Amino acid sequence: MQFDLTEEHLMIRQAARDFAQTELKPGVIERDEHQKFPAEQIRKLGELGFLGMMVSPEYGGSGMDAISYSIVMEELSKVDASASVVVSVNNSLVCYGLEKYSNEEQKQKYLVPLAQGQVIGAFCLSEPEAGSDATSQRTTAIDMGDHYLLNGTKNWITNGSTASTYIVMAQTDASKKHRGINALIVEKGMEGFTVGPKENKLGIRGSDTHSLMFTDVKVPKENRIGEDGFGFKFAMATLEGGRIGIASQALGIAAGAYELSLQYAKERKAFGKTLADLQAIQFKLADMATEIEAARLLCYRAAWLKDNHLPYAQAASMAKLFASETAMRTTVEAVQIHGGYGFVKEYHVERLMRDAKITQIYEGTSEIQRIVISREVLK
Ligand code: CAA
């Protein structure tokens, strides 16, 4: 067993760190306040190859491993989780699923531009009445011979209005329950496809979250991913990798809040000393550092299992569960360490605390991760 990152990992980490400081940090407070999508920053991330990190170069990707992906997610999320969720969804829920399960024609048409960062994608599973209970899909895709007729509503869709390519899960044969669900590639602009208003969120406010409405959208048969009825397994298998991305996002949010707290504690004076001289603060920093290190090891382990083609569902859920709980605890403590300054926007930690909350909710709540983990444990 060895814990060192490779030279390549270290270089990727430095590149992501530099990008976060020079491109994401300026304007992050304003984007959060005004719910402004980081369009220019995402375009640059695409140019750097960070939107198709794990896709093979044959399909326009960077051919990197999942550990590199985790590293990049951590570094970007230290500064701007609204930008990093775009990176996570595009890499894990869109590109990965297409590379692994779509056919050659679909790869050429949809994966290549997504992996090259020319366009971005969205993954559409959640519905007004199907969130955690993902098998209860109400959106229907009726088989009309040469096409599916798509009807229904999707909720909480990241990249809702900015995406060009949408992977939509829909029920074709309700009598088969989850085995009657299909995953369809839907293009922006298809007749009958409309985007609802932007959600006004607690956190990750720069990201673009919408409901989507489908009314008699004709989706060509050749846009179905995999065999008839493969859609639910597609969604679950894709979400496994997504959970590594969100775990790493949570890790980054925690690490960002910790680094700001450490710096503040060394500078801020109280009772004739720096905060860092006070044991009450030292203990908080010690707990933060320990939990962050544990979260990082869980993220890297899940990524390593994925890179080595070993089962990683349980490891990904463990990483997401622990890292997201760590993000929440750490950011709350970071605000506490900053005192009144922690409560205002200029010091960044209040935003990190708001952003942390979503990591316990999306791509499976903490309760869903516990279901996945306990099923494996009890097998
Ligand atoms: N890979 C492949 N197949 C899988 C799988 C996996 N990881 N997990 C389950 N399946 C298959 C099972 O084998 C089963 O198929 P068969 O019956 O044919 O064997 C089928 O899926 C149903 O599985 P379960 O019986 O386990 O289903 P369940 O109803 O008990 O629930 C669940 C499973 C884990 C709770 C699941 O519903 C789940 O993960 N829910 C959460 C959904 C979620 O994460 N939503 C996030 C939305 S996406 C998002 O947030 C993106 C964003 O924009 C940021």
Question: TL;DR?
Answer:
This protein is of the alpha+beta class and 379 residues long. Helix content is 51%, strand content 15%. It contains eleven helices and nine strands.
Description:
The chain has 379 residues and is α+β, with helices and mostly antiparallel strands. Helix content is 51%, strand content 15%. It contains 11 helices and 9 strands. It has helices spanning 7-24, 28-34, 39-47, 66-79, 81-101, 104-115, 231-267, 279-307, 313-338, 349-358, 366-377, and strands spanning 121-124, 140-143, 147-158, 165-171, 181-187, 193-198, 209-220, 269-270, 273-274. The strands form 3 sheets. It has a 4-stranded antiparallel beta sheet with strand order 2-3-7-6, with helices on one face. A 3-stranded mixed beta sheet has the order 1-4-5. It has a two-stranded antiparallel sheet with strand order 8-9. Helix 4 packs antiparallel against helix 5 (81-101) and helix 4 (66-79) packs across helix 7. The longest helix has 37 residues, at 231-267. The protein binds acetoacetyl-coenzyme A (CAA). Residues 89, 93, 123, 125-126, 132, 134-135, 157-158, 178-179, 232-233, 236-237, 239-240, 313, 362-364, 368, 371-372 line the site of acetoacetyl-coenzyme A.
